[in-house]
Amino acid sequence: METTQFSSLKTWAEDERPREKLLKHGRHILSDSELLAILIRTGTKNRTAIDVAREILSKHNNDLSEVARLSVKELAKFSGMGEVKAITIVAALELGRRKRESESQQKKTLTTSTDAYEAVLPLLGDLPHEEFVILMLNRANHIINKFKLSKGGVAGTVVDQKIVFKEALENLASGIILCHNHPSGNLKPSPEDLTLTKKLKQAGDLLDIKVMDHIIVAGNSYFSFADEGLM
């Protein structure tokens, strides 16, 4: 139970305080705002840590993925935050991202577009700008390398075909999967995405390096060129 009135957490019943609640019932029972409040630790004279956490979430559609894209400077602007608390939240969310990346590394054989999406999600999922990543595979569809090709702005990134296949050849890759993100959340491929995919596929055919798919990551969703018959 969370109160809608500003108050000190110390005045709440023990079962309603986030730390005590976690100790007694486990972490899974806590809401996002309660977990954030534990990181924030203290509020202000008139606002509890949960009030601060709720404001951060509400300003970003109650979506932790959006919160994960915030910089220390952006988080520190919220009343009751400051740089130290902002750093704590950024560090905690980065640990979560690295955990996902570690888990994706454990499953290195790709058999579906979902496998490819899950492999690249930790690298692209929370970014506020576009980046382009190449998954390089051997003949057994095991990931042998994840190569970050380029970093762009909110609207796009530049991809050099020569660098793509130079890296693929150096890694002795039999196939590659193109991956990039759309920070806007729009899953639809742009005309530039379609043109680039076609060019890279043709170049790969000449070099006997199969371009197997192109995955667009948009938050918790993805678009697969292969699944949609665009390869």
Structure description:
The protein has 231 residues and is an alpha+beta fold. It has two domains: 9-98, DNA polymerase, domain 1 (Orthogonal Bundle), CATH 1.10.150; 108-224, Cytidine Deaminase, domain 2 (3-Layer(aba) Sandwich), CATH 3.40.140. The chain is built from nine helices and five strands, in the order H-H-H-H-H-H-H-E-E-H-E-H-E-E. It has helices at residues 18-25, 32-40, 49-58, 64-68, 72-76, 83-106, 113-124, 161-170, 191-207; strands at residues 131-137, 143-151, 175-181, 210-218, 221-224. The chain has a five-stranded mixed sheet with strand order 2-1-3-4-5, sandwiched between helices. The protein is elongated and about 65 Å long. The N and C termini lie far apart (51 Å). Mean pLDDT is 86; it is low at 1-7.
Name a few traits of the molecule.
disordered N terminus; five-stranded mixed beta sheet; 9 helices; DNA polymerase, domain 1; Cytidine Deaminase, domain 2; alpha+beta; 231 residues; 16% strand
Entry summary:
Helix content is 43%, strand content 16%. It is α+β, with helices and mostly antiparallel strands. The protein has two domains: 9-98, DNA polymerase, domain 1, CATH 1.10.150; 108-224, Cytidine Deaminase, domain 2 (3-Layer(aba) Sandwich), CATH 3.40.140.10.
